[in-house]
Design a protein that fits this description.
InterPro entries: DUF6638 (IPR046578). This protein has 433 residues and is of the alpha+beta class. It has 20 helices and 12 strands. It has a 4-stranded antiparallel β-sheet with strand order 3-4-5-6. A 4-stranded mixed β-sheet has the order 7-8-9-10. Strands 1-2 form a two-stranded antiparallel ribbon.
Length: 433
Amino acid sequence: MKRLLEAELIYGRLLEISEPHLIARYNKALQGFGLRPTALTAFSIDMTGFSPEIADELGDRDYLDPNRVNRRFIIMTPDQAELPVVHTSFSNTAALMHEFFNANSRAINAVTIKDALYGEIEDSVSVVNDIDDLLSINEVRFRVLSAEDMLGKAAELRALADRLKSVPTAWADDVLLNRMVELAKVTGDIRQNALVPDQLVFRHDAFWANHFGGVYVFLDEKTTTVICDPSVPGFRRSRPWQVGYIGLNDHQRIFEFLASTNRLQLPQASWVESSGLYQHRADMVIRSLINEADPTTDQTAIDRIWLQTWMHGNTERVSKNGLYPFLQEMIRTVATTGTVKMQDVAPARRFLLVRAAPAHPDQWLTNRLIAQLVSQDFVSRFIFDKQGFYAAYDHYSEKFRDYVVATLSGTYLMDKAAFRRRLYGLKEDNNNA
C-alpha cells in the first residue's frame, strides 16, 4: 500500500481540506449523516467528498456508502468536479456526479462560497439482496442539504419575498422585513444567485456494481444483459425475454453479446498495429510467467536480452501457458492478412485480441469487463478495473509489486490520455482513471 500511495496509484489527485471553516462545514455534514465529527486538522477528499483519512479515523470505509446503495456526498467546492472517485460501489457514480455538477453549476458555485452541500444519491432500493434489486434502479434522485442551511434560508427568503409581493399589508410588517434583511445578508440577492439546484433526477445507465463479487449490467433498447457469477442470488438460467443472464465464465456468450451489440472493436490492422496492444499484452504474459517461476526476480532491472534468454531457458513453461506464442502468431496474422478470423480462436483467448469500441457509450464498462477477463494485463486492469487491480496487487510478491508500480509510473502516469488513446483508442476522459 505504501508503494501505491507514494506513486499516487491509490488516492491520487485528491483535494486537501485544511482551512478551519471548511473542516467545520465538513463536520456539520458528517453530523447531518449521524456520524461523529473529525478531529483531523487536514484531510483529502475525492469528487464525492470521500476522505481516506476520515475513513481510517472512523474505522469505516463505507461511511459515505451505507449498505453500498444511496451513496452520500459532501461538496465543499466546485473544484471537486475535476477530482476522481476513489471509493464507490457503482462504476457510474462518477458519471452521475459529473451530471449533477454540470446541471447545477450555478447553484454549486453560489452555495459553496459560504456553505457546503451534502446529501444522498437516492436509489429505488435501500439494500441489495439480489440481482433484481440492482435491476430495479432505473434513475436516481439527489437529495440535497446544506451544512449552514444556506438552502433552507434561501427557500425561506423566497417564500417571504413571494408573501411581500402577494400580500398588500406585508410592507408594514417590520418583523418580516427585518427577517428578509437578515436572510439576505447570508444568501445574497437570490434573484441573481441561483442557490437551489435545478436538476436532481438522473438516469441510471449501464454499470458495474461491486455486490456479490461484481455484477455487470448492460442496457440496450429492448433488453438488459447481466453478466456475473451464476451463483449470485437472482441469476436466472432460463434467460427471460427482457433480461439475459450470462455467467462470467461463459466466454463464448460474453463475446457474442459484446460483438453483436457493437461494443467491441474486432481485430483490424488499421488499429492493431498502431496501438501496440498485442505486443503489450504479450509482454504482460511473459512478466507474469517470470514472477510465477521466481517471485524474487527483480524485473525492474531486466532488459530485452535478459527476457529473450529467459524465454529460451523456459520454453516448456512458455509453451504450456500458450498465450505468448498465440499473441505473436496473431501479430503476424494481422500483418499478413489485415485481420483475424475470430471463429477460429478459442473463446477465452478472444478477449486478448479486442478492445471496446471507442465510439460506444459503454466503452469504459466494456473495457473493464475485458480487463477482468485478461487478468495478466495489470496495466489495463489498473486503468479500467481498479478494484480488481488492488485485490490482485495484494497477492503479488514484493519484487513484482516494485515492477508493477515502476511500470505504471513510467508508462501510464506519464501521460494518461495519450496512453489510453494509443492502446485503447479512447478519446474521452474519465475521472476514475
